[in-house]
Amino acid sequence: MSEQRLLMRGLAELVEHAVDATVRETERLHRSRVRRTYAVLERIGPIAPAAKGIELIQDAITAGVYEAIRATNRVVGMAAAVAIDTLDLVTKHEHDAPSPPESLGPATLEPSPSSSSRPTPASPPRRAKRTPAPGSCAPRTVASRGAPSRRSP
User: pTM value?
Assistant: First the structure.
């Protein structure tokens, strides 16, 4: 494992841990603020049972959202590790690949004289996109080249 790869993996893990810690602290603060609000509502007799039920539902949703954020952070961390490892392998492979023999000379991509006399095939026509005209409900056709034209329905 190269030193650069180790540094990049360490940085990716550091970022992942920092995001996780930030999300956990944000969740803790969020829950404490919400708890204060519901504590006040629970003191109001007629709405206390409804407030408690709503608090339980909100707490479950909040827990799910924060867990989804943490799970996404873990997946991004794993993807970063795979990308770093892949980049390291590609770089190593390119570095270790043998160079072409010098007897071949530089590669050229010049066309042969006979190929310049052949006609080139025409590009297929592009499909127009239909978008609403500014300030109206009428659709207009926007050609891929040239000015927009109105099209009757």
Answer: 0.56
- State the total domains in the chain: 1
DSSP 55-117: HHHHHHHHHHHHHHHHHHHHHHHHHHHHHHHHHHHHHHHHHHSPPPPGGG-----PPPTTGGG
Q: Does residue 88 belong to any structural domain of this protein?
A: yes
SS3 of residue 140 by DSSP: strand
Element (H, E) at 130: strand 129-132
Q: By residue range, what is the domain housing residue 68?
A: 3-98
Q: Is residue 19 within 8 Å of residue 73, measured between CB atoms?
A: yes
pLDDT tens by residue, 30-44: 999 999 999 999 999
- 């603060």: which residue's tokens? 29
> Residue type for 97, please?
A
